[in-house]
Amino acid sequence: MTNQKIVVKVGTSSLTQPATGQLALSTIAALVETLSRLRSEGHQVVLVTSGAVGIGCGRLGLTSRPNTLPLKQAIAAVGQGRLMRIYDDLFSNLNQPIAQILLSRRDFVQRSCYVNAYATFRELLQLGVIPVVNENDTVAVDELKFGDNDTLSALVASLIESDWLFLLTDVDRLYSADPRKVPDAEPIISVNSIEELTELEVQADDSGSGWGTGGMVTKVAAARIATNAGVRTVITEGRRPNNIERILQGESLGTQFAPQAQTNKARKHWIAYSLVPAGKLYLDNGALKAVCDGGKSLLAAGITAIEGDFRSSDAVELCDSNGMEIARGLVNYNSNELHKIRGHKSEQILTILGYKGAETVVHRDNLVLMN
Ligand SMILES: Nc1ncnc2c1ncn2[C@@H]1O[C@H](COP(=O)(O)OP(=O)(O)O)[C@@H](O)[C@H]1O
Ligand SMILES: N[C@@H](CCC(=O)OP(=O)(O)O)C(=O)O
């Protein structure tokens, strides 16, 4: 395979030694060699790397991870510089230029920033640079965090319309249960449909199944985001980065998630996954049917309850009566207005509010089903 766009995400568990928390230098060097080789073969490569907090802790001689946000942010600021220095030294030995990109969720929420980030990635990739991405931990605020770099890497892969997303971790693939706790857990080789993926997510939510607590939940969620954007996603072992090349050559290593037919165009994918919902609208059965089966817009008459404090144009979740999200969209009214008009016909909005707003609460062009 030539000229592929490839995003590789490496987790703290692969970058550091499990016993001591020290850097896993041989793994990092092997990763740098693999990525440089992929570049020289003509592929476009992005590295999403964790490790700022872990390496910052090591630098400051701390033995446990920080538990307050300001301390974590301070430690990430120490670790990020060191992390980049290690990468730059290793990549420079192989004459491979790199660039640091620190992103916060805010950069994805505003459509203009999102489009701008795309342009920057495109230029860097055309220049033959490997962008090295991490969350901008030092300025991230709780409500606007990616939460984890698995999600960040899936959003980056979607943004740049990547062909592949590799999630490198400390196990060789996904299993039916955490293999550390359940030795006879079944390996999962491939996930081909959205139904199979949904089944895995249900399993992940079930604490009894054993794998709700591990880092795999965020990886499966990342696979959903990326495969929905047409990106083939693979969970594989960080200690063997050259597995990436073997997988590109067709070997069946790791867990491979097939890309889904892209029902959502880029803008709808952005609404579904980049924005952070600011509230919930509960729909009656008629509205659920109109939105899900009829591809219709949501009207005020079909809303039974509202949660959250949001402004017009914010993203909101559209839920059934149990609070299960079935769609997401950009809302045309703020929460105060919606409390007044919910359950009423569109013709009554002028009388209730004293001004004529939009006819729809969420227009179908701004509405995406969350399958
Ligand atoms: N079903 C599962 N299959 C494989 N690994 C699992 C599963 N459930 C939990 N895990 C655990 O997830 C860990 C990897 O997640 P995490 O530590 O967050 O990695 P990273 O730092 O690479 O993001 C593994 O060490 C494994 O013990
Ligand atoms: N931005 C954080 C990474 C957070 C994260 O998702 O870590 P991991 O689960 O190891 O991929 C850091 O650099 O420490």
TrEMBL record:
ATP binds at K9, T169, D170, T213, G214, G215, M216, V217, T218, K219. InterPro entries: AceGlu_kinase-like_sf, Asp/Glu/Uridylate_kinase, G5K_ProB, Glu/AcGlu_kinase, Glu_5kinase, Glu_5kinase/COase_Synthase, Glutamate_5-kinase_CS, PUA. It is an enzyme of class 2 (transferase). Substrate binds at S50, D137, N149. GO terms for biological process: L-proline biosynthetic process. The keyword Transferase applies. CDD domains: AAK_G5K_ProB, PUA_G5K. Its EC number is 2.7.2.11. It catalyses: L-glutamate + ATP = L-glutamyl 5-phosphate + ADP. Pfam families: AA_kinase (PF00696), PUA (PF01472). Pathway: Amino-acid biosynthesis; L-proline biosynthesis; L-glutamate 5-semialdehyde from L-glutamate: step 1/2. It is found in: Cytoplasm. GO terms for cellular component: cytosol. Keywords: Amino-acid biosynthesis, ATP-binding, Cytoplasm, Kinase, Nucleotide-binding, Proline biosynthesis, Transferase. PROSITE patterns: GLUTAMATE_5_KINASE, PUA. It comes from the Bacteria. Residues 279-362 form the PUA domain. SUPFAM superfamilies: Carbamate kinase-like, PUA domain-like. GO terms for molecular function: ATP binding; glutamate 5-kinase activity; RNA binding. Catalyzes the transfer of a phosphate group to glutamate to form L-glutamate 5-phosphate. Belongs to the glutamate 5-kinase family. NCBIfam families: proB. This is Glutamate 5-kinase.
